[in-house]
Amino acid sequence: MHQIAIGIDLGGTQVRAALIDKHGTIVARMEEPTEAQAGPERVLSQIHGLTEKLLAATKSSVVVGIGVSTPGPIDTVSGIAKDIPTLSGFADFPLKAELQRRFAFPVSLENDGIAAAIGEWQFGAGRGLENLVYVTVSTGIGGGVVADGRVVRGRKGMAAHIGHMSVEPNGALCPCGNHGCFEAYGSGTAFTLRARTRAIGCEETTLGKNGSEIHARDVFAAARNGDALAKRLIDEEAEILGRGFTSLIHIFSPDAVVMGGGISHEFERLQPGIQAYIGQWAMPAFKDVKVVRAALGQNSGLVGSAALAFLAKRFAADTFALAAHH
Ligand SMILES: [Zn+2]
């Protein structure tokens, strides 16, 4: 029978659920606003409710498992959430056990950056690569790493919180509490904040002149209309991303850097600047590493979390085959 996996992308604002086949195709998809303030019980019933609705509307299939992507950092080995800043009440909450209690099939839990990296690796821009770094540039900066053909999970499954590389103690304050993090400069939030600050009193821009709040998309639109400040802000953003990506390239030696997240909607505008930075500042042996756009858009995490269920099943089958062999 037709095999499907359930993917859940639990975010601070939206909870998304999808049924995905083994080719990574989304068979059905639903989403609703996360009741982030209502506590874990409510959020878990949202996940359960969405899953029930999707399965009810689908022809008979074999469900191999459910993969759940959550905002991190979360210990996916113990499955216990210590604290999820964007969701209230998840303090010392046994998330994996509570999920497993509600479903008859195996539950996999993954930090969101790693889940999205898996999605792009298995079904998106990183297909067939042995080494990749996935970076999401959005409200914050997150990511995931595949090295030597394996997902890098690290201690407690929390590897690749790449937004929090810091080398500048007196730098901008990051939401993590530290100063000078990559995220504090390169995120969509930081970009927008810079635009708002710099537009004040600036003569050579239309940004903010109609009294409305400036969003990232306004800056890109203004740049397309020749706005000098907007163009400068975007070039600076590309340079900041290029600097962060260059560090990642030196650390992991990836075949490619895959960029996703809200800011990657403007990938074509940012890519030349990012690539130019790498070309100028990466060590000679690393200059040819390409930055590519995520292929799955906002579904990287959703598809990745479902891919987890397939990977978990494959791994279990391999283990079984090994056990049978010995
Ligand atoms: Zn930080």
TrEMBL record:
Transmembrane segments: none annotated. InterPro entries: ATPase_NBD, ROK, ROK_cs. PROSITE patterns: ROK. Belongs to the ROK (NagC/XylR) family. This is ROK family protein. It comes from Rhizobium mesosinicum.
